[in-house]
# Entry
Amino acid sequence: MTRLSCARSNAIAFVGVIALACVLPARSARAESKWVDRPYVASLFRFTGEAGYGVAFGNRLANLGIPDTTKSVDTGGAFYVGAALSLPIGLEVGVRTGFRLGDAGKSTRADEFGRMYDITTFGTGADAAANPEINLRSSLFGNKIVELGAEGRFIIPAATGTSFGQVSGLHLRVHAPTLLRAETAILFPTIFASGGTEWAIAMPVSVWFQIGDFYVGGLSGFRAYRYPLERTDVIAGVGAGYTFAGMFDVKAQLLTQRINDSDWSRAAGFGLGASIVAP
# Structure
């Protein structure tokens, strides 16, 4: 099956699920305390803050595009911070960035592993400070079982040698209240570089299970780079977290960004983080 056929099949699946969901009762505007029940866009005027620390195991020369035969592994560390506010008309506005430690933190872009449960980061550069991103999320349709949302992410080219970019697409969430949440998306990253427009297709997938205030899940998906790279990365990982008082979460994840590569361990890493939703 071609990638175009896959995209069409996913579009049909989106439409089919949404049509089925139209007969279901509407979701309450109140944000749920259980992780698996939380809506794609938080309730009106709710603030979300998050921070994480990522550790990446990568090869510095390979990440810089320089041939390397030593098979060495560099361990890089970086911090990630982000915040968002839910506004009227079902819109959530957020900002985020990362701060990398040392050369290894920059070349491995270790902050990507500190962005908890988000495996679709693009165009953040290789400086000590990652390119900041402005993120807009909108709820197109939602109830307690099914949600459809849109995302528009704008990448500000603050890092050396980077260009303005964007990531846009659709997210689909399916909830089994208090028990399970499954999510997928189809995203189209684009970097408007001076040497030509760089673009890719990404489809993240996650499934979460709730056990009391604890939750655990699997992370996967693919990123198909079409220009200037011709490469497809398959991502695999696991995540877990615990919610305190219905509003404060501690989180952890372990993943590799290229499980389909023979050197998959040199694209691996882990992250620890925390987030708060208020009021």
The longest helix spans residues 3-21. The two ends are 47 Å apart (CA to CA). The CA atoms of residues 187 and 219 lie 16 Å apart.
